[in-house]
Protein: Elongator complex protein 2
Amino acid sequence: PGGKVSIPLKGHTEAVFAVDAVYQSDEPDLNLLVASAASDSTVRIWSRHGSEGEDLFLASCAQDCLIRIWKVCTKLKQLPETEDDSIKLKENIFTVKVSLESVLAGHENWVYAVHWQPSLSKDGSMQQPMRILSASMDKTVIIWEPDKESGVWLEQVRVGEVGGNTLGFFDCQFSPDGSMIIAHAFHGALHLWKQATKEWTPEVVISGHFNSVEDVKWDPEGEFIISVGSDQTTRLFAPWKRKEETEVTWHEIARPQVHGYDLRCLAMIGRFEFVSGADEKVLRVFRAPKNFIENFSNITGIPMEKLCSRSSDLPEGATVPALGLSNKAVFEGDMAVQPDEDEESFNAISNQYPEIYFQPLILTEPPPEDHLLQNTLWPEIQKLYGHGYEVFCVACNNSNTVIASACKASKKEHAAIILWSTTSWKKLQSLSFHNLTVTQLAFSPDDSFLLAVSRDRNWSLWRKQDSSESGPVFTCCAYTDKNTAVHSRIIWSCDWTPDSKYFITGSRDKKVIIWGQCDLSVITEGNELDSIKPCSTVLDAGDSVTAVGISRVLTPDGRYIVAVGLENGKIIFYTWKQSGKEPALTDWTTSVEIDNSQSHALAVKRLCWRHHAGRAGHNDENSSKWLQLASCGADHSVKIFNVNRFAL
Structure:
């Protein structure tokens, strides 16, 4: 008594990954079936019989690509009770018999997961369906069922993903009624299939980054957002307008860039063009293909004429060469080429590995994961060479004519900001001032200033001079140094007020400060350095400030709306308005602090307000009470907040 019996079930030849068990009976506590998974790419099913008719079925899967089903039987022998000084002893002796019920071969790689379908309630009693779901590294998910006549386990349904640079599935689950299956893939994505009559079809499912999200931007019209992250992807999210329903839901509708380096920053250049920087020395510029604009029009309900005037010149889509990192444009003529069927052409290397993986699809709903991986890329139209280290931040001015960028730096010579023309893509200017990495760049809304903040705890302000033939020329007109600096740690973030009069800085020292005034008429030659001072008292945010953003729309009583993102994931809304000549503490009001359930779990990386009032996907007027704020964080999430400006 008290002794434990353990029985080794031998059969798998490689590491076992998963085991799942079910009872096969109408009554509880009876027949048990167990399924197991191992790295020998098998799934096995085991069963256990008792003298009371208990069946324990086990299924296992392993690295040998097989699934094994086992049956475990127990027999119970009772000995007569012995009476000895009123102590009654009762001994039970079990005999256990294990048999291998079935081996399911069908996967071609390690089987990572195996699950029985959950039991269903039928006619008042619980019934256990004999169905197993398995997920494998061979990019497939299989449903197995025993044949009704012979009882042999057969593959009933096989779903999965084709193409793309993925590695297969880690886990899978049945829905409670068995009509849907969900699988979780190597790249952090969820895949959902639903049973429609006999076919299983892919369904729309939530998606997002599977590593820290570093930057997020609204498009100038405020109809979609683009985010970049350390998962080496650039993703585009937009509201999906369904014909019958009023509810608007956000979905990933394109993945313009699937890269080989962690992405760090991006800037929109107009509506369907952006530049992104990754942990490499080049900046890459992307432009939307025709296929994206058509699908974007279908999903969001915005007519094509409004989106694009000359769509005929645009490429259909993009594809990545087998060994490259650059998205190549695919034009209409490229997709029709099919090699001849004769032997010589087939044996040519180029035909065994076709270059064109892009297939234009007409979408009316957000695309599934395998489509996102290869059919929604944007062609890369330019590379910008010039930085000596990994690109860290990038910004584009509001007239979409100049890009400013900076890279990681530990010396002054590398910390220079480079300005590029968006028409010729040539380098316009190199602005040298800071000694360490420039962490964020921001053009003023009227394009007359460029602001830079840096790891060296200072900011610098550059003023646009009269343009030369090649483009505008910027000169440094104000800065902080050792004597005038207020921040004592790295300045992570900065932004401008909509009237270009003030700018804001936020730092690791928990301080948020508004500086000004940057009025061109006030700043005369020579005394610029003295005229820009802190206009606000130092705001203590309570934790390291990693992101700041000022709304382009004011509160009804004319106050600036400031969002501050912290290292602990919190986002706090303040309003500010200058009252007198001297900064006063009463100029700040704390409006609202987003509660823990809605804020980020880790550092907020970027805050970006929609440029005008109203909500994307709703036909809100510009006078709307709603503003929208997009935020992204190190907790892998992108969030969009509806902010009621009348309540602030």
About this structure: Residues 290-300 form the longest helix (11 residues). Residues 16-77+92-202 form a domain with the Methylamine Dehydrogenase; Chain H fold (CATH 2.130.10.10). The first strand starts at residue 16 and ends at 23.
